């Protein structure tokens, strides 16, 4: 359990207290490694990575100004990995008209031996509040084949956009194959957790931490690819890119 002040602390009635903190690559790599290497997380695109590769991926993410990683806890227990990014600095920006105030999001919910009805709705209530504290519209781009993620977004109040093809990215430091995705949008005017209304009891939000590093539209930090990318390891293969996998990946459905 972290002892620093959270970026966001919110109690959702009937769900619990949600805390959002920046990912600490050294502290959190082992935990995240276990989550992303499960078959249920295949859409996240980091299957087969080592703990050290996961640490390196999130250390790189932490250096950027356009992409941010967060560990989410409910009542002190880690339950999700949440990421936000600037769509204008990502390949999704080539597929729709990015508006001022847009923010892209990716969510990976931790595995659980006991499915809990309404879990995703409660979690998304807090995460949309956190995200919209500084932005106007949330943009998700789950894999078009990830029907569970798309259905979960709709139940949570997202409006579906068109199906698009994210272009291949082939650069010295990053390779991502072409990907078919379904856009989904959530604006401030929409009620959070529209599919299952919940009352926010307390809400403490803070700005995302200041980051250092460069932002290049021509070299985005894109969704994690299935396979190696982003820099070479000792075998000559490129390391996995930061896992900015769109949508919600979880099984079984909470």
Please explain how this structure is put together.
- There is one protein chain.
- The chain is α+β, with helices and mostly antiparallel strands and 254 residues long.
- It has one domain (8-210, 217-242): 3-Layer(aba) Sandwich (Aminopeptidase), CATH 3.40.630.
- The protein is 19% helix and 28% strand.
- The chain has helices at 25-36, 51-62, 119-132, 147-155; strands at 8-12, 16-22, 67-74, 77-85, 102-109, 137-140, 159-166, 169-170, 175-176, 179-187, 200-205, 247-249.
- Strands 1, 2, 3, 4, 5, 6, 7, 10, 11 and 12 form a 10-stranded mixed sheet that branches.
- Strand 8 (169-170) and strand 9 form a beta hairpin.
Shape-level CATH architecture: 3-Layer(aba) Sandwich
What's the CATH H-level homologous superfamily?
A: Gcn5-related N-acetyltransferase (GNAT)
User: What is the terminal separation in angstroms?
Assistant: 24 Å
Write down the overall mean pLDDT: 78
How much of the sequence is in beta strands? 25-35%
Defining traits:
254 residues; alpha+beta; Aminopeptidase; two-stranded antiparallel ribbon; 12 strands; 19% helix; globular
What's a concise summary of this model?
With 254 residues, this protein is an alpha+beta fold.
Secondary-structure blueprint:
Elements: E1 8-12, E2 16-22, H1 25-36, H2 51-62, E3 67-74, E4 77-85, E5 102-109, H3 119-132, E6 137-140, H4 147-155, E7 159-166, E8 169-170, E9 175-176, E10 179-187, E11 200-205, E12 247-249
Parallel strand pairs: 5-6, 5-12
Antiparallel strand pairs: 1-2, 1-11, 2-3, 3-4, 4-5, 6-10, 7-10, 8-9
Helix pairs in contact: 1-2
């Amino acid at each position: 359990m972290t002892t620093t002040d959270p970026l966001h602390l919110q109690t959702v009635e009937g769900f619990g207290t949600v805390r959002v903190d920046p990912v600490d690559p050294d502290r959190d790599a082992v935990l995240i490694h276990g989550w992303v290497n499960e078959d249920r997380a295949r859409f996240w695109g980091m299957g087969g990575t080592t703990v050290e590769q996961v640490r390196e991926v999130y250390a790189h993410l932490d250096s950027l100004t356009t992409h941010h990683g967060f560990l989410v806890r409910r009542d002190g227990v880690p339950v999700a990995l949440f990421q936000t990014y600037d769509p204008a600095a990502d390949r999704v920006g080539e597929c729709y008209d990015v508006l001022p105030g847009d923010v892209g999001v990716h969510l990976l919910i931790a595995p659980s031996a006991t499915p809990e009805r309404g879990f995703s709705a409660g979690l998304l209530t807090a995460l949309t509040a956190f995200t919209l504290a500084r932005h106007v519209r949330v943009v998700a781009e789950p894999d078009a084949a990830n029907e569970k993620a798309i259905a979960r977004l709709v139940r949570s109040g997202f409006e579906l956009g068109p199906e698009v093809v994210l272009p291949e990215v082939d650069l010295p430091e990053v390779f991502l194959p072409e990907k078919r995705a379904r856009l989904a949008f959530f604006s401030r005017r929409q009620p959070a957790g529209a599919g299952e209304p919940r009352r926010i009891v307390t809400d403490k939000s803070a700005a995302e931490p200041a980051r250092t590093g460069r932002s290049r539209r021509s070299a985005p930090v894109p969704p994690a690819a299935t396979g190696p990318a982003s820099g070479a390891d000792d075998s000559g293969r490129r390391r996995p890119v930061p896992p900015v996998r769109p949508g919600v990946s979880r099984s079984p459905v909470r």
